Amino acid sequence: MHKAKERGRPREFDTELALDRAMLVFRQKGFHAASIADLSMAMNLTAGSIYKAFTDKRTLFLQVFERYLSQRNALLLQRLQPCTTGGEKIAELLRFYLDSARELEGRHGCLVVGSATELQVLDSELSERVRHAIMRNKTFFTALVLQGQKDGSVSPDLNVDSAAELILCITFGMRVLGKITNVAHREETIKLAMKLLR
pTM for the complete prediction? Predict the structure, then answer.
């Protein structure tokens, strides 16, 4: 009786650590290519434990995706905190994305950018989560451009929406390139990008 209860108890594990390990798999392989076997090995959990804790791969991905967004946003806000003008914040944001696209971190890839390329094969809820994350980025970039126009660090002649879309294209492009190689001229790249906004 006692042994049967022991076998039936759910395995105890660090949920946050398990999510972080699953995150790496999803970042490298994408949602569809990541198998339960891949996740099981990375998370150091049996398939049964994964299903008990997260129900299915889709639910696991949603939890990982939200955790990824939370972690990335916290890191970005921390980097931007010392900046005072909108222009300084945009330049530091570009540095943040370039740093994220370098070396091993860059090769792991961005979960948002990677998921965006899978939109056509994701179900409607997953697709909406990814779209929402991308549009939230654009809204944030719009706020930085507006701040820059108010404090004089960004040209007042720029169309705010177009400028935000440009920053979105640049930052997402950095993450795509980071899967292959490093941007060789970090500061020069940032200066050229900022010239477009001044």
Answer: 0.85
